[in-house]
Amino acid sequence: MKVSIIAFDDFTDIDVFFMWDLLNRVKRPDWKVQILGDQCCHVSVTGMRTHMHGRLDEANSSDAVLFASGPGVRRKINDDVFLDAFNLDPERQLIGSMCSGALILASLGLLEGKRATTYPTSKKLLESMGVRVVEEPFVREGNVATAAGCLAAQYLAGWVLEELLGAKVKEAALRLIQPVGEGLPLDEKEYEKALIVLAGASNRTDEAVTKASAASL
To answer: Do 196 and 152 share a structural domain?
Structure first.
């Protein structure tokens, strides 16, 4: 299974890297997460230069496609070359966006007749595109979902994990990033269980735990 995160110049760092980190907690041979763009590198809003893993058209064969947000979105919704690179289909793919990334979904015709959420500064523009905007952190309409507010990235990534790999995998990944002392218990036993789930192992193996642990500490 393949998950593609779509970036561009002036993307919001946390929206991309929060999802990247959480989705990469899964350590299975058939699981791949990649960041795609229309250039070999894109620079975030804070100036971080990030190498892309592939071209935009690779998103069309992905199981899930997640659009980042940031000031660069306003340019991309008027970039026909960028938009024409996508041939996405919610009948066979999960498609989502963070914050202002919903504007790209609307530009691709993916929010017609749907409710959606977005960052407050993008609300009026999204409404002008015929979308019913609601003030909620996460909105799912079939296989299309929108999230708003940077910390809502966990809801969007969690949705992808649950839909593609199941509720146990989603719970295991979220358990590893929650603030200490909050949420689900995480003693050594529960920590090891979570790593085993993320490694796709039904029984404990040292190799499975070691692989999953590398990105979790």
So the answer is: no
